[in-house]
Amino acid sequence: MNYLILSIIFGLIPFFQLFIKGWLFFLISLILFIIFYHILKNRGKQAFSFLAATILGSEAFALLFGFTNFFILFYLLVVSGIFLVAANEEKKFDILKEHIKNNNFNFKDWNFYHLFFGRGEISSLEEIGKLISSTFAIGENHIAYSLKTPNGDYYNQIISKEDIESYNLYDIKGKQELYYAKMQDLFIPNKQIRTLHKPYLESFCLTILLKNGELISFYEEPDVLQKIIKNLDDL
Question: Rounded distance, CA 68 to CA 111, Å?
C-alpha cells in the first residue's frame, strides 16, 4: 500500500465542507483524523508531512473560495501542527529503519516501539526522569535501538539474539506524596485518580543483559513491554 498517496487522499478532508458544515464537520473530521493517525503511525515521516501539507493546502483552497470559516481554519491549523509533531517523531523511526536496511535486513519484518533507554539497572521510578527517549525494534533474530546523543547525532545499535545472555521484566516502585483533594477535582478528575490511595507507585522495566556484560534497560507502559517480551520469546 502506498501510504504517501493515502495521506494525500486523507488530507482532502477540508473539502467535506462543501457538503457538511459547522459542528458536524468538526466531529466527523476529528474522528477521521484519529483513525488516519493510527493508520499512518509507524509509516514514516513523509506520510504525516504529506498529510499536514495537504490539509493546509485544501483549507487554503476552501478559504479562497469561501466555504470555510475561521473556527475551522484554526482547528485545522492545530490538527496539521499535531501531524507535523508526529512526523518529527516518525523521523526517529526512519533513522533506525535506514540503519537496519543498511545492515542488509528488511525493516518491514521488524516491530518498532518508542521506549525510554538507560544503561544499567533502574532501581526506582525516580530514576525514570534520567532516561533517554529512544526507538526500539525487534525482528529477524535481532534487536536494535537508536537514540539521540548530546551533540545531535544518532547512536544506532543492532544486537544479535546470540549476543543476548538474558532478558527480564521486573517491577520498580516509587514513593507517592500524600494528596489532598481539591475543589477542582469535582470538575476535572486528577489523571492519577486510580493510584492516589497508594503510598507507592509501581511499574515495570525491561532489562537485557548482553554476553559482553553490558546491561541495558528500557521503560514504557507495562502492556508495551509485555509485547516486547513476547517478541523476544518468539525470536
Answer: 41
119-162 per-position pLDDT tens digit? 988 877 677 778 899 999 999 999 999 999 888 899 999 999 99
With cell 470555510, the residue in question is 68
CATH of range 105-234; options 2.30.29.30, 3.90.1800.10, 2.40.50.100, 3.10.25.10: 2.30.29.30
pLDDT, tens digit, 9 for 90 and up, residues 1-38: 688 888 989 999 999 999 998 899 999 999 999 999 99
* Neighbouring C-beta atoms of residue 224, cutoff 10 Å: 17
Sequence length of the chain is 235
Please state the φ and ψ torsions of residue 52, each to the nearest 5 degrees.
Answer: -60, -45
Checking if the pLDDT of 229 tops 90, the result is yes
Q: Distance between CA 50 and CA 7 in Å, rounded?
A: 6
pTM of the model: 0.74
How far is residue 24's CA from residue 28's CA, in Å, rounded to a whole number?
6
4: cell is: 504517501
Domain spans in the chain, listed from the N-terminal domain onward:
3-97, 105-234
Residues 8, 50 contacting (CB under 8 angstroms): yes
Residues 6+ positions from 125 with CB-CB distance below 8 Å: 172, 173, 174, 201, 203
pLDDT attached to residue 202: 60
